[in-house]
Design brief:
heterodimer, A: 228 residues, alpha/beta, Rossmann fold, four-stranded antiparallel beta sheet, B: 406 residues, alpha+beta, 2 domains, two-stranded antiparallel sheet, elongated, binds adenosine-5'-triphosphate, binds magnesium ion
Chain lengths: 228, 406
């Protein structure tokens, strides 16, 4: 069973009276352990697709199943809990909570999940080591570089042991060195622990490392290729 | 961690939070000081009023509207004893008063002639301290105490005998010749058209040809004014409906009105104070909510329920208010306590009024817990109203628009 199963999904925005068909009939299945990039020109619907798959936005029609569970008809509250327990997010602008330290940003998610204190601190230490910034544990985001913040964001997205991580342009704000480091780290996690990553990206370096590349145009899948 | 989050958020924009706190603190301090002073002055006004009238007066039915000696009542030792048994009553002053013409030589002036129990009278009105010539009255003595302006008008001095002439009980003639025992002075009564004279109760009954134990009023003194109406009701229950039982609130309506209008002014001021503080707080809360929309979107995206997010914001607002109020209390308590122990001197006309009734001419600040409770409630309501704004904005939050800033 695929972890992500989007069936005949449409999304239409009623922008200024002119309907915009941002996603126009997409079928997409993602299996456990994939390292997949969704690409395409600006405005082709990558972000919209990712948001619907992540339960951040509603579908106009179609079905979205995550690990076999339909999420397109859930209430706001159910969806929030579902995201908390099953999906990891990495955003372009890092989006850490500014008043919390790196460690607290990670533990915050686990606390929401009801993980007890001892387990939280063990796991947050593991995660910070895995993303290679254990020494920044007690530092607040404002005092970290973009690359470091994005590492914390990746660690945060994994705190809930999600079925997959959705990352919308995670490298767009990073220089090439930081991009390289971050990608290698994520690939490492993918290989070692089988974490599933789905990216929406323009970044050639991400595309080069992806094992599967899904290309969109005008809200439709135009190609889907898996490298070997 | 929600508490940590809220608390750190409060201190995120330190200057803004401090400014908001200062506004709340100032409103609380000014509000408390003002109300405490007002309540203190009301206590003083009430104190001087009840010294004059008693907390409660008992008359014959209809006496208050038509002060005729014919509406006097029989109040023997048993009746007084009954009144004394009522909870809270500490003393009863029986008086028999009416009007008479007082003459000396060829001069005459209409005058209130008040028969009273000299010792009891002094206990509450400090009348003996007002005697400027001669002596104070003694119980059972045949003699009269004249108001100075009256004595001056008549040209009478201590030892002279004055003629009292008027209408007595049930149409009898009231006529007597009494020696002037002493002359008293009440500055506030100095310019009355009519005179004023005190005689011992027995002498008054003789003058007005009233039966023994007859009085026109009983002034009832209480240990405190807290249960005024309850005590009045208890008196009605004991005495029956032939009597007119009136609290000082009824006999001194002008004092009640003065307090009410002054208090209304105070409440208006409080309203303005808390409006300023409230809008200051609202501004801060709205700004910090708007600034952090993206953050809220992210927190909701990664799994923080809207309800808990709203809770964080609610705690932030309440925390800000609680800190402001507590700081305000800490600042104002010592000030209020200081002015309670070292009252502000009163000025102007009030001084004479205070002195007349042997009340120190100072306004001690009231320590009434009701003042603190009332303001606490006002601030609480204000905080709840303001705290509800971010909750509404969280309910309406659209995750993706918040995150992308669209
Ligand atoms: N909230 C919205 N309201 C109206 N139209 C929207 C909204 N979000 C996206 N769109 C439109 O939907 C289409 C797809 O947008 P989307 O953000 O998914 O593209 P994208 O592939 O992520 O682009 P980019 O590469 O620039 O991030 C665009 O035409 C966009 O203008
Ligand atoms: Mg996009």
């Amino acid at each position: 069973m695929p972890v992500i199963d989007a069936r005949d999904v449409y999304k239409t925005y009623e922008g200024n009276g002119v309907p915009v068909h941002a996603v126009n009939g997409i079928n997409l299945q993602v299996e456990k352990g994939e390292f997949t990039a969704i690409i395409g020109p600006s405005g082709c619907g990558k972000t919209t697709l990712l948001n619907m798959v992540g339960g951040l936005d509603s579908v106009t029609s179609g079905e979205i199943l995550i690990g076999g569970t339909r999420i397109d008809s859930m209430s706001d509250r159910e969806l929030t809990d579902f995201r908390l327990l099953r999906i990891g997010f990495v955003f372009q602008a890092y989006n850490l909570i500014p008043v919390l330290t790196a460690r607290e940003n990670i533990e915050f998610i686990m606390e929401l999940q009801g993980v007890d204190k001892a387990d939280r601190s063990v796991r947050s230490r593991e995660l910070l080591e895995a993303v290679g910034i254990a020494e920044k544990a007690e530092v607040r985001p404002a005092l970290m570089s973009g690359g470091q913040q994005q590492r914390v964001a990746v660690a945060r997205s994994l705190a809930s042991k999600p079925e997959f991580v959705l990352a919308d342009e995670p490298t767009a704000n990073l220089d090439s060195h930081a991009t390289e480091d971050l990608l290698d780290m994520m690939l490492e996690m993918n290989r070692q622990s089988g974490v599933t990553f789905v990216f929406a990206t323009h970044d050639q370096r991400v595309i080069d490392k992806a094992r599967r590349v899904v290309a969109l145009d005008d809200g439709k899948v135009v190609s889907d290729s898996t490298a070997h | 961690m929600l508490w940590t989050l809220a608390w750190r958020n409060v201190w995120r924009n330190r200057r803004r939070s401090v400014l908001t706190l200062a506004t709340i603190l100032l409103a609380v301090v000014l509000g408390l000081l003002m109300r405490s002073m007002q309540y203190g002055s009301y206590d003083a006004m009430i104190g001087s009023t009840v010294a004059r009238t008693g907390y409660i007066q008992v008359h014959g039915e209809g006496y208050w509207d038509n002060k005729s000696i014919d509406r006097s009542i029989h109040a023997d030792a048993a009746t007084l004893g009954q009144v004394m048994t009522v909870e809270g009553v500490v003393d009863v002053i029986p008086r028999l008063e009416s009007f008479a013409l007082i003459s000396f030589g060829d001069r005459t002036k209409p005058s209130a002639v008040i028969g009273t129990e000299p010792a009891v009278e002094h206990r509450y009105t400090s009348l003996a301290d007002r005697v400027v010539e001669g002596d104070y009255l003694a119980a059972g003595q045949r003699g009269v105490l004249l108001l100075r302006s009256l004595a001056d008008y008549l040209g009478a001095t201590v030892g002279d005998e004055v003629v009292l002439l008027g209408a007595g009980y049930r149409g009898q003639t009231a006529a007597d010749l009494l020696p002037v025992i002493g002359i008293f002075d009440l500055t506030m009564m100095g310019n009355l058209e009519t005179g004023m004279a005190y005689v011992p109760l027995a002498a008054a009954r003789e003058l007005y040809a009233a039966p023994p134990d007859q009085v026109t009023s009983l002034s009832v003194m209480l240990d405190n004014g807290g249960a005024l109406q309850v005590t009045a009701d208890a008196l009605v229950a004991i005495l029956g409906t032939d009597y007119e039982v009136m609290t000082w609130r009824e006999t001194s309506k002008e004092v009640v009105q003065q307090i009410q209008s002054d208090s209304a002014g105070g409440i208006f001021m409080l309203g303005i104070l808390y409006m300023v503080a409230g809008f200051g707080l609202l501004g801060t809360v709205l700004m910090s909510t708007m600034e952090r929309r993206r953050e809220f979107g992210v927190m909701n995206a990664v799994g923080l329920r809207r309800s808990r997010l709203a809770m964080v914001l609610f705690i932030e607002t309440i925390a800000l208010v609680v800190v402001g109020v507590v700081a305000g209390l800490i600042v104002s308590m010592p000030i209020i306590y200081w002015f309670h122990l070292h009252p502000i001197p009163v000025t102007g006309d009030l001084v004479t009024v205070f002195e007349e009734f042997n009340i120190p001419p100072f306004i001690p600040f009231a320590l009434d817990p009701g003042i603190f409770v009332a303001q606490g409630l006002v601030v609480l309501v204000m905080a709840l109203v303001v705290a509800s704004f971010p909750i509404v904005s969280i309910r309406r939050l659209h995750i993706m628009r918040a995150i992308t800033g669209r």
